[in-house]
Structure formats: structure tokens, C-alpha cells
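Chain A, query sequence.
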Amino acid sequence: MEKRKRVTLILILGLLSAIGPFSIDMYLPGFPAIAVALGTTVDAVSYSLASFFIGVSFGQLLCGPLLDRFGRKIVLEVGLILYILASIVCALSTSIEVLIAFRFLQALGGCVGMVAPRAIVRDLFPVEENAKIFSLLILVLAISPILAPTVGSYVIALLGWNYVFVVLTVLAALILTAVIFWLPESRQPDPTFSLRPKPILARFMSVARQPQFYTYALSGGIASAGLFAYLSGSPFVFMKLYGVTEQQYGWIFALIAVGLIASSQLNSLLLRKYKSEQIMITILTLQAIIGILLLMGSVMDLFGLIGTIFMIFLFLSCQGFSFPNSAALSMAPFTKEAGSASALMGAIQMGLGALAAAMVGLLNAQSAIPMTAVMAACTTVGLLILIAGKRNIQYIAKLQDIEEEALDMIEKY
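Chain A, predicted structure.
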């Protein structure tokens, strides 16, 4: 693939991947304003975030098989059109119930932008390059946590929270245009690919039973759920607990996101010397330690605003290492079923993220403890699953070696 086409492809895939983060991050500074406008509470507004996570999780299970059956482009186009229509209704919402419902539909359309790029990378690039390509996607993807809340805070201050969804509509329309005119089709439609429930479930089960898939999809997904706990809890922690303004919150969010960008690019350099497996175990160990220290500091009230920002910066910087490596390792065993594998991995990640976000809300935050407790729990459990999963993979590999040696001996004699 020539360099210009490669850059264009990665840019479009990065923009598609950024739809989800923009949809999440851009309206976070508006939680208090939305609560006032719709006559509800900030906790109730946070359920619109959880409904988005649930929609993305469920939607990925739907669009994965559709990507394998109809090809990548047509499914992307239909999903983006649904996203645009749902965003318009969100902008016109007059009750929290309508906002929650159409955030779910917005997620159903937007989730294809999360599944398709991973499948397209698996279609077009050698498996040994996947982690590097995912790191490049994160470079585009990571700009969204810097731009989205900052832009969102100014849009809300100048025009009102409704216009956040107007901006999202325009962005999605531009991305749809790029997909139509400049994104190549990486996989032709496969008429033999059944869309009946039983074969689809069987295909997902086949993917889920692969030890490398469930080890890295679960460990990476649970660890990344700490990010969703932060997304759910940070509006209260920063704007209510520490009293920062909407604009200040946007800049704090942007500052923390810088760590994600820097670490994702450092990951590309480390991959020249270390394997993805080595990076994963090291970074999850470090993230678990940081998460526990963050929780202890919250319980003992050791951190003020600056200390909390610094610790969260360190915690989320680890995501720049864990996401590309867990994604590449989860997807590596699959070729024909890359769409289904990508969908299942994304559904696991978003499902766990929705659970983490809902837990922060249900704990009825009056301090930073609910947010930091969920963050610490997520990364610690992710590390334990990774350790157990790696041992299981090694055990299975030894059994396969023994079986192959036995077959060789039988053939010889």
C-alpha cells in the first residue's frame, strides 16, 4: 500500500474510532446544565452515559456479523446515518427519558465506527503490524479527549448544551462523506455468511472459546472499564467537589488526555524491542499499583485538586499501552471472523464500561471514593485475569506440544 493511501486510510479509521469518544466526552461538561434544563439531577443525567455504553455494547454484537456478511462500507454508511438522526433528536430533547433513549439509539449507530476500524486493520495489514497500526489510530483517537470536552465546554457556555449534539451531527456527516468517497472496501460481501441467530451465536462462541481471545479481551476490557468509571465520576469530582468551571473541567480533561497520546506513541517505540505480551503484564501491574494508591489517597483525603489530577493522569496514561496491545493480541488468531471477533471484543469492553459507570452512579458519590474505588478494582481484577489467562495459555500450549510429539511417535512406529 502506497504511503499516501496508507495515511488517508489510517486518518479515516482514526476519525471513525473517535466517534465514540466524542459522543462521550463532548457533553460531559454539560451535566449540570442538562440537569437544570431537564429538571433532574446530575446522577440521573449520568444514566444517559450508561445508556450510551449499553447501546454500544449491544450494537457491536449486531454490526460485527453485518460487517462480515455485507462488507465494511455499506454497514458503516447505514450506521452513521442512524447516528446522525439520533443526534438530531438528542439535540431536541425536552426530558431526561428522551435523552436516555436516543443516546442508546445514537450508540447503536455510532458503534460501527468502533468495530469496523479494527476489522479493516485486520483485513489490510499483516498481523505483526496490527499493534503498531492500533497505536497510530490512538494518536488520532486520543485527540478527541483533548478537543471534545474543551470544545464542548465552550459550546455549552456560548450556545447551550443542545448544540453539543448539533456539532456531533455535523462531524458525523463529514466522516460519512469521507467514508463514501475515500475509504476502500476491505472485504467483499459474503453471501454464505449466515445472519440467523443460531449460526451467529455459534460463531461468537467459537471466538469466545479461543484462550488468547478471552484472556486479552477480558483483561484489557476490565482494565479499560476504569476509564469509564472516570468518565462517569469526573463531572461530580471536579465540578461539584472541587468547584471548577465547565471551561476549567474541559482543560483538565484535555491535560489528562495528553498522557494517553504520549503513552500510545511510546508504545509504538517499545514494540520494536518488546512483545505485546510483555508490555501488557508490565503496564497492568503498574496501573493496578497506581489505582490502589489513588483509592488510598481518596479515603485518607491526601490529594487536593492537583494531586487528584496527577494520579488520574498516571492511571489513564497506562491505557495508551494496554488498549493497542490487548486489541492486537485478542484479534491475532482470527482472519475470516475478524468482524465478529472485533464486535465481541468491543461489546465486552463497552459492557464492562457501562457496568463501571453505573456502579459509580449507584454508589451515590459524595466524595471521590466511589470513582477511585471502581477504578482501582477494575485494573486490579484485569491484572489477575491476565496472570491466570497467561498460565492457562501456556498450559494449553504444552498439552498441544505433547499431543504433537505423541502423533509423531505413532507415525514413526
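DSSP finds 17 helices and no strands in the chain. Residues 369-412 form the longest helix (44 residues).
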